[in-house]
Amino acid sequence: MESDIKMDRILGIDLGTTNSVMSIVENGEAIVLSNKRGERLTPSVVAFGKNDEILVGKAAKNQAVLNSERTVMSIKRKMGTEELIEIGSRKYTPQEISAQILMKLKEDAEEYFNEKIDKAVITVPAYFNDNQRQATKEAGRIAGFDVLRIINEPTSAALAYGVNKNENQIILIYDLGGGTFDVSILEIGDGIFEVKSTAGNNKLGGDDFDKQLRDWVLKNYKSKNGIDLFGDIMAIQKLNEEIEKVKIELSDYERTELNIPFITADENGPKHLNMEINRSDFEDLIQEYIEETIHLTDKAIKDANLTKDSIEKVIMVGGSTRIPLVQREIEKFIGKEITKGINPDECVAIGAAIQASILSGERKGMVLVDVTPLSLGIEIEGGIFIPIIERNSTIPTSASKLFTTIADFQKSVEIKIFQGERIRCSDNISLGQFQLTGIRAAKKGEPRVEVNFIIDVDGILQVTAKDLDSFKKQKIIISNPTSLSEDKINKIIDEARKNRKIDLEYIEKEEIKRKFDSEYQTLINLFNENIEEIDINLKKEVQTFIKEIEKKSKNFNIEEFQEYFNNLEFLIGELKAINSFEKEEVEAL
């Protein structure tokens, strides 16, 4: 019986840009596992030897200077893209490289327990799109894992923080790693971990800080020595390795020495690099990045309909949060000290292990509720986007709305599905479309079409359209509702904010035009239905108005609408006096 339980071990993995960490729940407690070298952090580095032997982790990182062209770092930033990594005559996908890291973790965990482990929960940035999430799952499968769940890193960190806490509280998870930034607002209590909102940038992290500092050093070196090292691959690799050390040292000291002997050589002999770097210089270089994280943090708080005063705890996750500037800026912004005593390198993996224990049934009484990052909805007349599931809605979730037809005796409607925050569909992301046919033949505005959106726990979207009169039904399943081009998801909300005025002007004009078209058709219907009873003077007045509108072909500008509306409403009122006519307004597809 004991062996059966052990075969069900599930590994929690933080597959990081710079380092990866693994954890597992043992006797009810999550523990961080050491790799074969006895280290709890495994560098996310893969190297290929001259005979195609593969090195992973510290061994790969140690030989990077001498084998830079066959060493792959920060592969996480390429996940979900079609970019291939060329090593010799072979090309690898990002998931194949990531799989090597996961294989290393799997082997080390199996050696640790002396048994096979084939199930895992793997974390990803909250703002990873569907392509990136699917690539991560594929990497896990290549590595030999059954990936039971992909969990967001900030949510995972919240699990690690709040697993044994009983009090209700609202916490902010600020996750700044090697390659990505995420911020999430969660409400925890009574075993429920509910994500209220999330924001982030998939291209902001410690790698960017390293590059800023490296380029600054290169420019200074060129200025003082007249030597350009930008094209020297060997020199760049040496510098990359030392820059990371300098960055870490500057978190503890106000200044440090960057010393690289024999960094290059010219006709006069070898050249050395020796430079003092102050913390203030480094902070100036990364200030803009940190301000971006504060902007995103503010956005997440507002999206959760909270204020900074509502935040009770600030949890810092990721190695880059050790930078003093990062801690100062977030404390200044929130107005309270960050919570200490949490290992920023390990808490994400610990949370993944806890999630694994929830899935296995070992840990009971805990519920994790996440959110969808962007609104989902359909297109209506005029190309306008109508959200059905709003951004930051908890998942799983469902929602529905009623729509109607725009033409008499319309037999079908086309359901076009979009994702985004803009009013015009053309500014959002198209996810798919389908037709609902066989709807009840009736005058426009009378049929009732119910459109229902359902997102399950894995983020799979199902859209159903049903005619409530004929009961005809059609549906589509979209497995990648967050599959966006690189960086797109990070810009959508900002673009919506910046273009809010333009969007509102557009929708105002479209609403006026839609209302006019609808009322004009009502006039035509009333006129045709009551033509025998209409007074000759009223008949001539209506016919003159119709000819005038048809002559213009409805191409008059918005400013002309009010005059025509006044005449239109008067004529409709006169015709309604002959034969009562009521119409309930619904959105027209």
Spell out the blueprint of helices and strands.
Blueprint: H1 2-6, E1 10-14, E2 19-26, E3 29-32, E4 42-43, E5 45-48, E6 54-56, H2 58-62, E7 71-73, E8 85-87, E9 90-92, H3 94-113, E10 119-124, H4 130-142, E11 146-152, H5 153-162, E12 169-176, E13 181-189, E14 192-201, H6 206-225, H7 233-249, E15 255-266, E16 269-278, H8 279-303, E17 313-317, H9 324-334, H10 347-360, E18 367-371, E19 376-380, E20 384-389, E21 394-395, E22 397-404, E23 412-419, E24 429-437, E25 449-455, E26 461-467, E27 473-478, H11 488-498, H12 500-529, H13 536-552, H14 561-578, E28 587-588
Parallel strand pairs: 1-10, 10-11, 12-17, 14-18, 22-28
Antiparallel strand pairs: 1-2, 2-3, 2-4, 5-6, 5-7, 8-9, 12-13, 13-14, 15-16, 18-21, 19-20, 19-23, 22-25, 23-24, 25-26, 26-27
Helix pairs in contact: 3-4, 5-10, 6-7, 6-8, 8-9, 12-14, 13-14
* Ends apart, CA distance between termini: 60 Å
Number of domains: 3
- What is the CATH architecture term of the largest domain? 2-Layer Sandwich
What is the alpha-carbon Rg in Å?
Answer: 30 Å
Please report which band the strand proportion falls in: under 5%, 5-15%, 15-25%, 25-35%, 35-45% or over 45%: 25-35%
Low-confidence stretches: 1-7, 480-486, 581-585
CATH topology of the largest domain: Nucleotidyltransferase, domain 5
Can you identify the CATH superfamily of the largest domain? ATPase, nucleotide binding domain
